[in-house]
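Weekly puzzle thread! Below is a chain. First person to post its structure in token form gets bragging rights.
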Amino acid sequence: MKELSSGYGRVFIGSKEDCFRTAVFLAEGQRGRNPLAKHFTWALTGGGTPKEWYQWCVQKDALSPGMLAAAHWFVSDERYVRIDSHESNFGNADRLLLKPLNIPAEKKHPWSTNVPPAMAAVEFGRMGARWFGRDKTFDVCFLGMGDDCHTASLFPGSPLLKDDGGNFFAAIDVPGKGWRLTITPSGLKAAGLIVVMALGANKAEALHRVLAGDFDPVNIPSQILKNCAQNVVWLVDEAAAAKFLQA
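Winning reply:
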């Protein structure tokens, strides 16, 4: 893959297959940095590309036995819906990846949607602290990026982009989209490795705005990753990178 540097992390450009394979390689490498750790925490994300990646991982038997034995599974953000809903990020990860890989229930950690959203965010942080500690979040945090440059459930204009109170996780009522549960900018800074996958021509404009546009994270939320760029890797295909490469 072609590698470029940016103020928002390392950028790797290749085919979809390259991106899928590198996502696994990066996670496995992060686990290898601390082989004596009792637990390894991996937060997945939502959207169409992750669904394809889940199916690819199962088909290719891509995750090592060591990873499957060590990993505890989370999601970086979630819609406030039941886990059996096809809008549930964790539900989709479970159906397409975790269940086919026979991951036991004790290694699956969805957000709670049985309590009020604000309480769910607090509960998730307390529950997860057992696995990733009180001063950090996930060992690996996967993110996507929307056409509007949002990432996780941090949308343009979100008050969390201005001030998240130092909280790692939060509930936010997104206009027109309902309640979301999400990792915050502070939570991203406390993650070990952040992997952002953006594929397809429909992401070209957004990727260019993030990596080559003026710094305006309130309106271009993915630019918050500048605050933890040393821990960020972007995996993009040629179509998504086209406008950025022309800049």
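Puzzle host: Confirmed. Bonus trivia for everyone else. The chain has a mean pLDDT of 95.
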